[in-house]
Amino acid sequence: MAAEGHTQELDIQNLDELQRLRLLTRKIVSAQEEERRRVSRELHDEAGQLLTALKLSLEMIREDLAVGESDREATERMQRQLDTAIGLSEQAMAHLRGLVHKLRPTVLDDLGLKSALEGLCHDYSKRNSFAIDCRLTVNDSLALASSVQIVAYRFLQEALTNVSKHAQARYVQVSLEKSAGNLCLTVEDDGIGFETNPAREGMGILGMRERLESVGGRLEIFSRPNNGTRLVAWIPS
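Given the sequence above, the corresponding structure tokens read:
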């Protein structure tokens, strides 16, 4: 009897520890999103403006050299150098835009969740040389809080990352709809699937669960070996 009582006490202690861990994880996720928002704003406002000014300055120098009276070969050489510099600045700007999009996708603020998820699906197919067909269907017009949109966006990011790493899929169907006061985001692939076991979930699945639970949502997983996988995120909206 004593051993049984000790086991029950340990279970309670473990449950309390799990609850504390989940609370800490939610705080970390919230802090990460706020930091991403801040860095995104700085990259867009400061680094983007500086690089734009650099590009304009280099273009003006090239135009001045084109009408100058210096040695022809020297002028042509400098023009080639400036062409290279302008190209590099354009690449840097594109790279920064990509970072901004990853940190805090401005399309969420500008155009809403539907356009943001469409962009994710298109970019995902493009990164995979269109060998994986990723499509989105939206059944309703959606008016959602910013906190709901970012959770849905991050969920799809992580879900598509998991498909790339594990599923060996050729097709991914993403659907978005509202149902009974919830936003329902489904990601289904035709990949190799797996045996579902909550005790052995990887960090990707655990991260998605924690993010959804932090806003009162939940994750459902349907999968079997050689029969694909369907992830369903329910987010209070």
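The helical segments are 2-66, 72-103, 106-110, 113-127, 146-167, 203-213. Try to locate this feature in the token string yourself.
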